[in-house]
Amino acid sequence: MAKIRWFTRTSRIVALCSFANFINSADRVIMPIAIVPMTDLFNWSLHSQGWILSACAFGYFTSQILGSFWATKLGAKNVLICSVLLWSIATLVTPLLASSITALISCRIILGFAEGLGLPTIFHLVRIDRANRSLVLCPHLTWEACFYWFGSFGFIWVLLWYCLYPSDPYTGEDTLPLHMPKVISHNIRWADFILSLPLWAIYAAHFAMNWSSYIIMQWLPTYLSRNLGGNAHSLSLTAVPYIVNSIFGVISGRLMTCIGLVGPALFLAIFCVVDNLALAIILVSISMGLSASNSAGHLSNHVDVAPNHAGTTFAISNTIATIPGILCGPVTASLVTASDGKWITVFLGATFVNLTGAVLYFTNSVATQVL
User: A GO BP term, please (predicted)?
Assistant: First the structure.
């Protein structure tokens, strides 16, 4: 068996993909933090904030399956370079377009489209958990600096990619292939991916998980700032839920999807009635930590039900699970406005979606191959 050593071709690709995934995640989570001072400057309404926050998901929704298809047809290297360049440019020009909501939303849609191309390509090479360390740094920078710094990282990445990416990553004794070939099944129709109840159990669970995740990602800094009096130092604590999520993702093992959906549902229900900032951070961190159990639940179920087509079923599932990202912005704004500034309906709604997803998953999921 070949050994993995530092600076092998495989390790360089993994390192580059990790860096690209970090930039991808950072560029997406800057806006939920930056929108707090930006709203103070531009006097945006809550509804305008909602559309700005959801704009990225519009683009992301349209390019998931395209990214997977183009990575296969055009090559992962070419698609990844183009996507990183495009989302980095969109990030860099954001401060220049901020005075126009229309231009800003258009820019965020382009950002989401580019990131939707990039993530399937990264996962095509190797699966890597996203880092959210940018959440610690961003509150201590000006909102313009956040976009300029992290947008510039993409250009640095492209230079490293050209220098370090091997021309043929699957040759040589010091490398290991990043994905293994699969046995091809015949007579599979697109309808099979849509009409299978076990697959819809996965899709529903993924949708429910992302509803809560997008609520936290898009609105947590605004909620802590406007409702619990959080300052720049306090907003750094928004990184804590993601750190806990990563830790739980590593140690969760084969915990049931029940923990990943029902657990966050209960803690979000408690979170919405807490008026202490420190306790709120603890509760939402536990919620995000328990959500990581989904990695050993429905997210790994793709390999059970469709071992030869797991990439396709995940692309479909992730596309459907992007719908919460589109809806959470305007829906949250409408609910908060209708409730005279109260957020309880937002978090109880997320609780209901999680519990519904858990019921659908438990009643329809299987661990045997269906495709």
Answer: monoatomic anion transport
Comparing C-alpha atoms, which of 220, 189, 301 is closest to residue 256?
A: 301
**CA neighbor of 82 nearest in space, from 131, 164, 20:** 20
The span from the CA of 134 to the CA of 244, in Å, is 15
Angle 213-217-222 from CA coordinates, rounded to 5°? 135
> What are the residues whose beta carbons fall under 8 Å from the beta carbon of 188, sequence distance 6 or more?
309, 371
Question: What pLDDT is stored for residue 50 in this prediction?
Answer: 93
CA-to-CA distance for 78 and 344, rounded, in angstroms?
Answer: 46
Residue range 81-128, pLDDT digits in tens: 888 999 999 999 999 999 999 999 999 999 999 988 876 676 656 544
Nearest to 133 by CA among 18, 10, 230: 18
Q: How many other C-beta atoms can be found within 10 angstroms of the C-beta atom of residue 145?
A: 14
Q: Dump pLDDT digits (tens) for 254-292.
A: 555 777 788 888 888 888 888 888 888 888 888 888 887
For domain 184-371, the question of CATH label 1.20.1250.20 is answered with yes
The DSSP string of 31-91 is HHHHHHHHHHHH---HHHHHHHHHHHHHHHHHHHHHHHHHHHHH-HHHHHHHHHHHHHHHH
Give the pLDDT of residue 174. 39
Say which CATH architecture domain 1-170 belongs to. Up-down Bundle (1.20)
Q: Where, residue-wise, is CATH 1.20.1250.20 in the chain?
A: 1-170, 184-371
Tell me how far apart the alpha carbons of residues 207 and 68 are, in angstroms, rounded to a whole number. 20
